[in-house]
Design goal:
Number of domains: 1
Low-confidence stretches: none
Mean pLDDT: 86
Number of helices: 8
Oligomer: single chain
Strand order of the largest sheet: 1-2
Radius of gyration: 18 Å
Structural class: mainly alpha
Distance between the termini: 41 Å
Strand content: under 5%
Shape: globular
């Protein structure tokens, strides 16, 4: 518990400063985040006896993140499609046996990790002072922390015992309410409530999905790089899906300029 608290006290201000500053520092941080997360994903796949093309997937994600800052969503979508087809070619040329599973696992990991991070970068590019990005990040932390402590104290009814026996409905409801309160403080009308609702649902979905991967791989954590939290995937699993849930709505709210 102490390690968990210390990591949060150190990590939270750093992330908030990077969001506030934006630009190249945030881009580099997300590139490092993607690199470590993709390595953890590839190791989980290895534990499941699933082969992936690590370097092709890693380079594809880096490529998407670098270009998303400059060219936003329209060109980003084209680049994703282009890179996917290039990967298909390279993978098939190198490994015909089990090509479908290799292609599927590699491309899924690439998109699962790089697309949400690229959305976050795009959101920050058109986000004066990092207001919306800060709301999403703080809302995610509010869900994770509240769900954890409420679940430990009051959790009685299992949310998804097959995937994660410690997660409870009480923790989920507590986390969801905390996220709605946080986003409402940022945007004090119905839109803030809706963003909080979508973000909370997305964070829980991302958490459960990573639990599925770990259960299949038969490991407790995706890594050990963050003391008290495990790996990057363990810390940012909910954020990855939560961003996808709220990105279209926030884009609509600010006028669809990106």
């Amino acid at each position: 518990m102490l390690k968990r608290i210390i990591s949060a006290l150190v990590g939270i201000p750093v992330v908030l400063i990077l969001i506030r500053y934006g630009g190249v520092p945030l881009q580099l941080f997300l590139l490092v985040l993607f690199t470590v997360a993709f390595f953890e994903y590839s190791r989980l796949a290895e534990y499941m006896n699933i082969k992936i093309k690590f370097w092709e997937g890693l380079l594809g994600g880096v490529f998407i993140l670098l270009w998303s800052w400059e060219y936003a969503t329209s060109v980003l979508q084209t680049l994703i499609i282009l890179w996917v087809y290039l990967m298909l070619y390279f993978i098939i040329m190198q490994d015909i046996e089990n090509s479908l599973s290799i292609i599927s696992a590699t491309i899924f990991g690439l998109l699962y990790l790089s697309v949400p991070l690229s959305m976050f970068l795009i959101m920050r590019k058109f986000d004066p002072n990092g207001y919306w990005c800060t709301m999403v990040m703080v809302g995610t932390w509010a869900f994770d922390s509240t769900a954890y402590f409420v679940g430990r104290k009051f959790g009685r009814h299992k949310l998804a015992s097959v995937l994660s026996p410690l997660k409870s409905w009480e923790g989920f409801i507590g986390g969801l309410l905390a996220t709605i309160v946080v986003t409402f403080l940022f945007l004090s009308d119905f839109r803030g409530i809706l963003i909080g609702l979508l973000l909370g649902l997305g964070v829980q979905a991302g958490d459960l999905f990573e639990s599925l991967l770990k259960r299949e791989a038969n490991v407790k954590d995706s890594g050990n790089i963050i003391p008290g939290h495990g790996g990057v995937l363990d810390r940012f699993d909910g954020f990855l899906v939560g961003v996808v849930f709220v990105f279209p709505l926030i884009r609509f709210i600010v006028g669809g300029v990106w």
